[in-house]
Design goal:
By secondary structure, the protein is an alpha/beta fold. 49% of the residues lie in helices and 11% in strands. The protein is built from 29 helices and 19 strands. Bound molecules: 3-hydroxybutanoyl-coenzyme A and 1,4-dihydronicotinamide adenine dinucleotide (NAI).
């Protein structure tokens, strides 16, 4: 069992011991129940203290058990909390480090709570598409007030124990310990003092009212509806807290339980729980153990001070690391530094950054025109023009000057990292770090593992990604890596939709209704349509069999590269980003269709969305099979953090599983029968076909 009993004089100490965060899994719950029985049976024991071993009091219900019979098995969390409430000896929670979800609910079931300073307290269930399901919505408002509790429950945000203890009249914490080190002793002393006090206080007996009642909840409901959009849980949180103010305690508990169980089965909650795990799984690389030694990275060098070089540098400056930027000309350096400064100044203007922090960050930035000045850097990231000969010249110079053991990274988006590594005599130190634009904003970092990349280099760069707050996902070497390789198929399919009768706005609207931040044509205008044009020109030589709609080339021939040229698939008013449907483009597409001479038809939103999303999924299946991505959940993280895939759908692989792989394959077969589509396009990837045949899923 993962909760232990120990008598300490007259006090029983129950310690939750279920690493990493003392999740309240079945064996922990059984341990608490057994320890409570022992404490209550022992005449020498006068009071009980519950605490957590290691780095948390408790992170809540054990997320790993969700969906398994263990999650609901007796004693469930509600029964355990009942045991605490019904104990004939007072129970004191000694709360430290992390007290979240079911962990906080457990503490609220105790008669008293003693907290260490700076402890992270939250009911974060809403972030998993749930609401607190073991009394949190009924008890928290009773101890910190309705408004403070509702804010915590609807947002899931963490609040420090010190801030909560400062709420006037709060009854959450009966005592604040001087430090985490003295917490247990102070809790035991407190328990000794309370041993004979009767009646023992229970949170359930406290009153729960809001002075403005319904008016307040109506106001709060409008706010929640406005922000929650595709997530059902936040409004259910509100319903449950409102019930706490209106119903008897036990009725409120039953109401909360019903809502909790219903939410547990929603696709949104399943998706959010998948994302929680996927996010943490991304840093786990099958053949690179967590204890792989890491190289020390203190100083960064960046080659190229253009769009990406500047944004990449900002990540490290933000993390307090010195950066030296190298360019070929002073003007380019001056431009790069001015852009970084402008970015920071705009944050200062918006009140998001202080002038002092701006000065500190700019103080960490230096520039040079000489490779010799890079010799102290522990890692260099190249972000020069996307041309192999330019990369070759740069990497040869880096090989000559960088100190032994320095990591040599390329931000290339399309070139072969193995070929780049081969320009050096240290291919084991070479890796790809594919940042997304704007690099100081976008969460995603594709870490491209070359065939020679050393394991400690990979482990170091993954850890560095965490330090600069990126979601880092490992990709093998291939054209486009994970994200762009998939998006190429999606863009091809978007082009075919135009050839068959859609307008760019119709496609974008359908995809945005599905939940993407942006449809493919608006995205093209933002990224620059010339990028795809260059790729298609290359493909015409490398892979002439690949078919594309000609519409995108025609657009580029008109110089309509997108927002940067003031026109693309859409028109843009000067200085504005609002996409205005363009009659010129629509006429151009119609003329092209007429030239093709194929019949056109009206295509519904469902077909548009599925042709695009299934294009992603089928290519992803190839990527998985080839080992470019090591797990399906990594692909989901790429699409959620780099491509605006709707969070509540959990990513393309999760979406495919939810839709049913059999259904995906069947729909693809129907698309393949469309004489206007490219039938080879819809050839199911072998992995997809195999999973369908075996009745399995991508994400397990
Ligand atoms: N159950 C099981 N494992 C958990 C867990 C939980 N509740 N919370 C975190 N973990 C695991 C993570 O999966 C990770 O495992 P790994 O090392 O194998 O990857 C490990 O703990 C460390 O997690 P983080 O990387 O997130 O570490 P941090 O130190 O940055 O954060 C934390 C720790 C603040 C606890 C953070 O993990 C967190 O916010 N966890 C979510 C807590 C949560 O949502 N609790 C509510 C659960 S639902 C519930 O309680 C229902 C109830 O109302 C009935
Ligand atoms: P950019 O054209 O804005 O900047 C490139 C910079 O490199 C210029 O300032 C140029 O003066 C400098 N440069 C060129 N040759 C150099 C050399 N030999 N030594 C030092 N500096 C040199 O290009 P951008 O967009 O920043 O792209 C850089 C790299 O990042 C490319 O490999 C690109 O494929 C990749 N990338 C670009 C993304 C984007 O959205 N722009 C996204 C992800 C990757």
């Amino acid at each position: 069992m993962t909760a232990h009993y120990q008598a300490s004089g007259n006090i029983a100490v129950i310690t939750l011991d279920n690493p990493p965060v003392n999740g309240l899994g079945l064996s922990t719950r059984q341990g608490i129940a057994a320890a409570m029985e022992q404490a209550n049976a022992d005449k020498a024991i006068t009071a009980i203290v519950i605490t957590g071993a290691g780095k948390a009091f408790s992170g809540g219900a054990d997320i790993r058990e969700f969906g398994s019979p263990k999650a609901m098995a007796e004693p469930n969390l509600l029964s355990v909390i009942k045991l605490l409430e019904q104990s004939n000896k007072p129970v004191v929670a000694a709360v430290h480090s992390v007290c979240m979800g079911g962990g906080l609910e457990l503490a609220l079931g105790c008669h008293y709570r003693v907290a260490a300073p700076n402890c992270k307290v939250a009911l974060p269930e809403v972030k998993l598409g749930l609401l607190p399901g073991a009394g949190g919505t009924q008890r928290l408002p009773r101890v910190i007030g309705v408004e403070a509790a509702l804010n915590m429950i609807v947002s899931g945000d963490t609040v420090s124990s010190d801030m909560l203890a400062a709420i006037p009249g709060q009854q959450l914490f009966n005592k604040m310990a001087a430090s985490a080190d003295s917490l247990l002793e102070e809790a035991k002393a407190f328990a000794t003092d309370m041993a004979d006090v009767r009646p023992m206080p229970l949170v359930r007996d406290l009153k729960c009212k809001h002075p403005d009642g319904d008016a307040y909840f109506q106001f709060a409901r409008n706010m929640v509806r406005g922000t929650a959009k595709n997530f059902p849980a936040p409004e259910k949180c509100l319903d449950a807290v409102q019930a706490a103010t209106k119903r008897k305690f036990e009725d409120g508990m039953a109401f909360e339980r019903d809502l909790f169980i219903n939410l547990m089965w929603t696709a949104e909650s399943r998706a959010l729980r998948h994302v929680f795990m996927a996010d943490r799984a991304a840093s786990k690389i099958p053949d690179v153990p967590a204890d792989t030694p890491k190289r020390e990275i203190k100083q960064i060098a960046v080659i190229g001070a253009g769009t990406m070089g500047g944004g990449i540098s900002m990540n490290f400056l933000n993390a307090g690391m010195p950066v030296v930027m190298l360019e070929t000309k002073q003007e380019a350096l001056d431009r790069g530094v001015a852009t970084i400064l402008k970015n920071y100044e705009s944050q200062v203007k918006k009140g998001k950054l202080s002038q002092e922090v701006l000065d500190q960050r700019m103080g960490l930035l230096s520039t040079t025109l000489t490779y010799d000045d890079l010799k102290d850097a522990d890692m260099v990231i190249e972000a020069v023009f996307e041309e192999m000969n330019v990369k070759e010249a740069v990497f040869k110079q880096l090989d000559a000057v960088m100190k032994p053991g320095a990591i040599l990274a390329s931000n290339t988006s399309t070139l072969d990292v193995d070929q780049i590594a081969a320009f050096t005599k240290r291919p084991q130190d070479v890796i790809g770090t594919h940042f997304f634009s704007p690099a100081n904003v976008m969460k995603l970092l594709e870490v491209v593992r070359g065939k020679a990349t050393a394991k400690d280099v990979l482990a170091t760069v993954m850890a560095l990604g965490k330090r600069i707050k990126k979601t880092s996902v490992v990709s093998g070497v291939c054209d486009g890596f994970i994200g762009n390789r998939m998006i190429e198929q999606y863009s091809r399919q978007a082009g075919f939709l135009l050839d068959e009768g859609c307008t760019p706005a119709q496609v974008d609207k359908a995809v945005e209704k599905f939940g993407f931040a942006m449809g493919p044509f608006r995205m093209g205008d933002l990224a620059g349509n010339d990028i795809g044009w260059a790729i298609r020109k290359r493909r015409a030589i490398d892979k002439p069999d690949i078919t594309y709609s000609k519409t995108a080339d025609l657009l580029c021939e008109l110089g309509r590269y997108g927002q940067k040229t003031g026109a693309g698939w859409y028109d843009y008013a000067p200085g504005q980003r609002k996409a205005i449907p363009s009659t010129l483009v629509e006429d151009m597409v119609s003329e092209h269709r007429a030239k093709l001479g194929t019949p056109t038809r009206k295509i519904g939103d469902e077909e548009i969305v599925h042709r695009l999303v299934f294009s992603l999924i089928n290519e992803a299946a190839h990527i998985l099979e080839e080992g470019i991505a090591s797990k399906a959940s990594d692909i989901d993280m790429v699409y959620l953090t780099g491509y605006g895939f709707p969070l509540w759908r959990g990513g393309p692989m999760r979406y495919a599983d939810e839709y049913g792989l059999f259904n995906v394959a069947q729909r693809m077969q129907q698309f393949a029968a469309n004489p206007q589509d490219d039938a080879t396009f819809w050839q199911p990837a072998p992995l997809l076909a195999r999973l369908v045949a075996e009745g399995k899923t991508f994400t397990g």
